[in-house]
Amino acid sequence: MALERTFSIIKPDATRRNLTGKIIAKLEEGGLRVVASKRIHMTKEQAEGFYAVHKERPFFGELVEFMCSEPVVVQVLEGENAIARNREIMGATNPAEAAAGTIRAEFAESIGENSVHGSDGPDTAAQEIEYFFSKDELVG
Ligand code: RTP
Ligand code: MG
């Protein structure tokens, strides 16, 4: 299978607890390669735009506020089946339901503050990468 790219965020609950390295280690051990990475403090506008698909959901306001509360690390990951692979390594949205050994099982604090984001399909992966990175920032 050809190499695929996906978009990842290490969320504020994880950067606050200094878990960036441990999370990247799990992604790398799972066969993914970091081809772009930067630490940013998201603005409210950036977070609202990024999560626009969830704007009617009851947790939208809380989610936007959380994502802007502390710095995050936005990344592009590359590997075979990277989109599905990343979501496997992340585990279920709710840490109580996440499989043992996954990032969310080990590190997430709650369904909202769940340590990582990962694109859910090829279209969203492409859109999300473009939302945060220019082409010359992707170094394979
Ligand atoms: P993500 O997009 O962050 O990778 O996570 P996901 O696909 O597993 O979850 P999704 O349904 O897309 O939800 C996006 C993020 O919204 C927050 N959330 N809070 N309080 C709640 O009930 C609730 N539900 C979702 C989480 O931060 C989730 O990752
Ligand atoms: Mg999602």
From TrEMBL:
* Lineage top rank: taxon: Bacteria
Catalyzed reaction equations: a ribonucleoside 5'-diphosphate + ATP = a ribonucleoside 5'-triphosphate + ADP; a 2'-deoxyribonucleoside 5'-diphosphate + ATP = a 2'-deoxyribonucleoside 5'-triphosphate + ADP
What's a single GO BP term from this record?
GTP biosynthetic process
- In the UniProt entry, which residues are flagged as the active site? 117
Q: Where in the cell is it found?
A: Cytoplasm
Q: Where is the Nucleoside diphosphate kinase-like domain?
A: 3-140
State the needed cofactors, names only.
Mg(2+)
Q: Name one GO molecular function term.
A: ATP binding
Q: Does the keyword Coiled coil apply?
A: no
Q: Does the keyword Chaperone apply?
A: no
Q: What is its EC number?
A: 2.7.4.6
In this record, what's one Pfam family?
NDK
What the entry lists under CDD domains is as follows: NDPk_I
Which InterPro entries has this protein been placed in? NDK-like_dom (IPR034907), NDK-like_dom_sf (IPR036850), Nucleoside_diP_kinase (IPR001564), Nucleoside_diP_kinase_AS (IPR023005)
State any GO CC term. Answer: cytoplasm
* UniProt binding sites for ATP: 11, 59, 87, 93, 104, 114
Q: Which UniProt keywords apply?
A: ATP-binding, Cytoplasm, Kinase, Magnesium, Metal-binding, Nucleotide metabolism, Nucleotide-binding, Phosphoprotein, Transferase
Q: What does the similarity note say?
A: Belongs to the NDK family.
The entry describes its oligomerization and partners as: Homotetramer.
Q: What does this protein do?
A: Major role in the synthesis of nucleoside triphosphates other than ATP. The ATP gamma phosphate is transferred to the NDP beta phosphate via a ping-pong mechanism, using a phosphorylated active-site intermediate.
Name of the protein in question = Nucleoside diphosphate kinase
Query: What's the encoding gene here?
Result: ndk
